[in-house]
């Protein structure tokens, strides 16, 4: 299972982590840019992943863009 993100209107920073049924992973910050391609953490999610938390975070103290949508794509491959 893989998850990736994209943005079409502006650059955004998101925080992502996943839960394996017992514990949450360490949170990962990802910068998703308007001009760039799809962004992912770079690794396949563990097969035990049961839920994924995704939230937008501010890039800096002066970041006031609260309405930048970031799309996500969850890809599940059959074994």
Key features of this structure:
5 strands; 79 residues; two-stranded antiparallel ribbon; mainly beta; globular
Task: Sum this structure up briefly.
With 79 residues, the protein is an all-beta fold.
Give a verbal description of the structure:
This protein is an all-beta fold and 79 residues long. Helices cover 0% and strands 38% of the residues. It contains no helices and five strands. It has strands at residues 2-6, 12-19, 28-32, 51-57, 71-75. The strands form two sheets. A three-stranded antiparallel β-sheet has the order 3-2-4, with no helix packed on it. Strands 1-5 form a two-stranded antiparallel sheet. Strand 2 and strand 3 (28-32) form a beta hairpin.
DSSP strand (E) fraction? 35-45%
Largest sheet: 3 strands, antiparallel
The helix content, as a percent range, equals under 10%
- Output the strand order for the largest sheet: 3-2-4
Q: How many alpha or pi helices?
A: 0
Per DSSP E runs of 2 or more residues, the count of β-strands stands at 5
Topology record:
Layout: E1 2-6, E2 12-19, E3 28-32, E4 51-57, E5 71-75
Antiparallel strand pairs: 1-5, 2-3, 2-4
